[in-house]
Write a structure and sequence with these properties.
Layout lengths: L3 H14 L6 H8 L3 H13 L3 E4 L2 E6 L8 H9 L18 H27 L2 H11 L1
Antiparallel strand pairs: 1-2
Helix pairs in contact: 1-2, 1-3, 1-4, 2-3, 3-4, 4-5
Length: about 140
């Protein structure tokens, strides 16, 4: 399973809560990965104006307020899609089989409904919600 989404949330909490801009190396230490992976995710977040960097200043800062940044926006940024895709369909069911003949439309509709529910849930949660929950655990 892809971990870009959870890594991005981790990174954005760090960036949001830091008094100083954080470098990819500092972020990588906390996330438990390498700096090149962090830079890849940062690049995706920069494309969507979620983080920024300044010339002559090492590190990254959060562009929107944490209360304004939804988990859906983060998901869309790191997955480079407007609509979250949770499920994929197998490609070659047999038309000779009654299940094979009807499985794609059945699952397509069902999966679309589930993914729509997922999108709405992500849109209702913000980075600030994650930060708040983290503070409660401290």
């Amino acid at each position: 399973m892809d971990t870009k989404f959870s890594s991005a949330i981790h990174m954005l909490i760090l960036i949001s809560e830091s008094k100083e801009p954080l470098t990819s190396e500092e972020i990588a230490d906390s996330v438990g990965t390498n700096a090149s992976y962090i830079r890849k995710i940062i690049g995706l977040l920069k494309k969507k104006d979620i983080v920024e960097s300044r010339r002559g200043v090492s590190g990254f800062t959060l562009k929107p307020e944490a209360e304004e940044l939804t988990l859906l926006q983060i998901y869309q940024a790191v997955n480079e899609t407007e609509t979250p895709r949770i499920f994929d369909l197998h490609q070659n069911p047999s038309d000779d089989c009654i299940v094979g003949r009807h499985i794609k439309p059945v699952l397509t509709d069902m999966f679309a409904e589930i993914e729509d529910t997922f999108s709405r849930a992500l849109a209702e949660k913000t980075l600030a919600d994650c930060i708040s929950l983290m503070r409660k655990r401290l």
